[in-house]
Amino acid sequence: MAGPRRVAIAGAGVFGAAAALELRRRGWSVVLVDPEVPPAPRAASTDVSKVVRREYGSDRFYLDMASAAIDGWRRWNAEWPAPLYHECGLLALAGGSLDEPGFAGDSWRSLQAAGCTPERLDVATVRERFPAWREGSYPDRFFHAAAGWAESGRVVERLVALGRAAGVELRRDGVAGLLAGDGGVRGLRTAAGAAVEADHTLLAAGVWTPRLAGLEWGMWPTAHPVFHLRPADPDLFRAERFPVFMADIATSGWYGFPLHPREGVVKIAGHGAGRRVEPDFARTVGHEDEALLRSFLQEQLPALATAPIVASRSCLYCDTADGHFWIDRDPRRAGLTVASGGSGHAFKFAPLLGEVIADAVEARENPWLPRFRWRREARPYAGEEEARAPG
After folding, report:
1. Cα(369)–Cα(114) distance, integer angstroms
2. Residue 380 confidence (pLDDT)
3. CB of 30 within 8 A of CB of 167?
4. What CA–CA distance (Å, rounded) separates 198 from 7?
């Protein structure tokens, strides 16, 4: 009698870890290959927090997908030993009126059309509830309670631990390439020269995926600054007074988080077009990025203007030209699926990603998969994730 099908997965970030757990639950024999102990310090999935939001401008597809994911986050909170999703709400600050076209206004209308209940705020309410913000910083704004943030590094750790408990083999090694055979792919070749043979291969290696898959024409790494600041007045930045925010994000790129309950830092990061780099880029942040941050803080969050930066890094997005994920079987190489192209907004969908990717591996129908299908030609960058200004 034949044994279980075997899948080799490159990358133990949120794509790979979620897929490994789901495929193991479906009866696959799974080997997960990553050169670092998850959560890998250089992976986009690492760090202390990621935003979980429904706000996607006029794009109802991602709003609906995020709503389903938030149900999943709440379920995980109920099932796991400690909650790793914190639903503190989101403050969306607009560069103009919410009644006008634009990311914040379009999000406001989309949320209402979907039956959500965002709360439009006047200046006096912001002053009372969220006093860290300089009065009158933005012309309009809303608060949406059904949003928050996830402890991203710990989530990846949890998914990997659940996978290993279920029988996933975690192999510490880099991936040097694919094993070719019979017109398709039959596994992975590791940096140490070992062959990891498999019935199916999943590339979920983040910014290293384009190089491994020969897809550098369709996806590429971009660098985005992340800062952890130590506030002089921590109480001003606790979640009830300083929720997750997006500050006219499609124009400024800035978003951030409340005071981290264990680390004692306020994380603020940039979500713009970024700059193209190589996957082995050092993850450092330049002086120009820090100067832009200080200018933003001076103008909008004066209590953080001189706060010490205790950590900084460049988060590397694996971008696609359209800003949508790339989750599909290779149409030309049998036995290969690619799950990458997170484009800086995938982590919030973690509770759905395992099932979505596993369905792609097994060639099953899935309501979310059609948008993430294989691209067949190079395209100019025209990002459709409306929170990011096209570069």
Report:
1. 21
2. 78
3. yes
4. 5
Q: Are 144 and 54 in contact (CB under 8 A)?
A: yes
HSE-up of 153 (CA within 13 Å, CB side)?
12
150 within 8 A of 85, measured Cβ to Cβ: yes
Residues 6+ apart with CB under 8 A from 314: 223, 224, 225, 226, 277, 281, 283, 284, 285
Question: Which tens digit of pLDDT belongs to each residue from 227-261?
Answer: 999 999 999 999 999 999 999 999 999 999 999 99
What is the Rg, in whole angstroms, of the alpha carbon atoms belonging to the chain? 21
- Output the six-digit token pair for 324: 């949508």
Give the model's confidence band at 389: pLDDT under 50 very low, under 70 low, under 90 confident, else very high: low
pTM above 0.85, yes or no: yes
CB of 315 closer than 8 Å to CB of 271: no
| pLDDT given for residue 1 in this prediction | 34
**Tens digits of per-residue pLDDT, 278-314?**
999 999 999 999 999 999 999 999 999 999 999 999 9
Residue 109: which residues within 8 A CB-CB, separation 6 or more?
58
Q: Which of 1-10, 17-26, 328-337 has the lowest mean pLDDT?
A: 1-10
Helix axes 103-113, 60-79, angle to 10 degrees: 70
Q: Which residue has the tokens 């690619």?
A: 338
pLDDT band at 391 (very low <50, low <70, confident <90, very high): very low
